[in-house]
Write a structure and sequence with these properties.
The protein is an all-alpha fold and 194 residues long. Helix 2 crosses helix 3 and helix 4 packs across helix 5. The radius of gyration is 25 Å and the shape is rod-shaped.
Amino acid sequence: MATVIVTVGLAFIGYLATYLNGLRLAQRQARLTRVNQQLSDFYGPLFALMEANGRTYDTWSAKYARPDGRDPFRHDTPPTEQELAEWRTWATTVFIPNIQAMRDVVVTKADLLIEEEMPQALLQLCAHVSGYEITAARWARGNYEEHLSVISFPGRALREHIRDRFTQLKREQARLLGHSRAPSRNRWTSFISR
């Protein structure tokens, strides 16, 4: 009788261990799927669009910099008509489409946020885009009195938010994949800064 009890007990323990291990693996796989989706559908696209827009803006700023290095919109001397015309071309061709794409990611994929509430930098981005859409609509009518969005771009806050979340998720992805060494923040920061 003792042998039967020990055998049944060991079988039960084996079944329980197998069940718990399967449950743990299923939870890990579900988390990895979620992290992959957050990276591919939300933080990855936002990161790429933000970096592309920032680098393009830096190129515009350098091309139209005043002798002291500041761009025409951050200078005491107002932009010339030629600079404003060039700005409208760059804005309608590159900047506005990029920020609209960023806004669209935020609006359509908000369920992939890490946070429980919408971060202020993302709300500011959405408002900034709306402000530029009004400005662009005026340009389309030939009204060139305004050249910037009525709501400022949350540049630094947005960049820090997206980089931090992207890096955090890449670390978690590496951990879930079982890589012995997850990428450090410094490694991603140096990659991002290129």
